[in-house]
Amino acid sequence: MSGIDGVCAFDHTHRPHRASQPRWQAIKSLCAQHGQVQLDHFHLLCRLGCGDFGKVFLCKINNSLRPHPNWYYAMKIVDRDSLTLKNKLKRVHMEKQVLSMLDHPFLPTLYANFDAYQYSCLVMDYCPGGDLFTLQQHQPDLHFSISTARFFAAEVLVALEYLHMMGIVYRDLKPENVLIQEDGHIMLSDFDLSLHLEVHPKLLKRGPEYEVVNKRMKKPILCCRNSYEDVKRGKKNAATADGIVLLPAAEGEQGVDIVEISAEPINGRSYSFVGTHEYLAPEVILGLGHGSAVDWWAFGVFLYELLFGFTPFKDTGSDKTLNNIIKQSLTFPRRTNSRDRKNSKEIAKAQDLIRKLLVKNPKKRMGYNMGSCEIKKHDFFDGVNWALIRSVKPPFIPTTRTLHEKQTSFSMPKLGVKDKITIHGTHQVDFF
């Protein structure tokens, strides 16, 4: 068996949102030149962070192979032998599987993956803005403004919507896993805890003639209209043999065909106890089996933390925190500064959304049946143009010197069958 084996993700996965980017072109050129990507094709510059089962390094393509622009990547390196001993190797396989499926501006691109002896290496996007948790620690009162929280929550919601439509339950939403790209937009990270289930999209159509759905779509959009509200108010609807739900045209929409798609991976259950304790849904703690509704619970906790600086059920220890999640009623602290007093109506909207997300019975939780369609229509997101969300100027754009700009010279580590990778430069970092 070869010690080093590489795969160029470009060769087997078409990614229209990223394929024209220079980073893709650099990887494609590397693949064309060498046939496969290997660890010694990269300079590891510094360690960006570490997780439960791997560490992430800033890297760039080794210019000694062939001149390349200094495009930077993040490389996640995992010790498979260590994970095998902990019976967690399947988490590496899950992350690879999920990353290979993704093609979305708010989710990472897997540029290449390869094995180097006992290590698995994943080459992904580098996000110079750090993570949302660190950014929040630098805010006044350790929480974001209403408008900033709405921006980040909206982008995370769009990313979760895409994951669910792909049949992926994320199961690890928290500010530490929301990264800031160089343009200020978000990117979710860490998919080793994800769950892949079957998904059966529901096609919702508003308009006078359902045949339009089958033949052509005048205005195809994702979950942006008021179909759920119509159902809730008891308006008549019917389902076709194709599973299309027909809804009456809203007032002023006669003659306009509107298509909505709702896709929730609810046809499957997991009984695994995984995730960050403060973000766990009650059904996970109780071992009742769970599906995609756990992401909507976590989304409620996430929004709460953005607005108030801490999670709603946190206590002095893990056991107390888990007990609070199951038994304690939801409460909100007061935000007392002058800016918040002016935004009291917006805070009330946010609290209403959080209450509907943090319902302990998953079947009564907002998002359980209609997913993001339901959540997008909440008053808290009034004014959000979902179709043009990528065109909105982010509240924070990285401007400080990034890690790669601060580094001097580093040499590529020599990797063999040993327990440690050492990066040489202004400092040393032991990998394991």
TrEMBL record:
Residues 42-381 form the Protein kinase domain. This is non-specific serine/threonine protein kinase. Its EC number is 2.7.11.1. Residues 382-432 form the AGC-kinase C-terminal domain. One of its GO terms (molecular function) is protein serine/threonine kinase activity. Belongs to the protein kinase superfamily. AGC Ser/Thr protein kinase family. PANTHER family: FLIPPASE KINASE 1-RELATED (PTHR45637). It catalyses: L-threonyl-[protein] + ATP = O-phospho-L-threonyl-[protein] + ADP + H(+); L-seryl-[protein] + ATP = O-phospho-L-seryl-[protein] + ADP + H(+). Pfam families: Pkinase. ATP binds at K76. It comes from the Eukaryota.
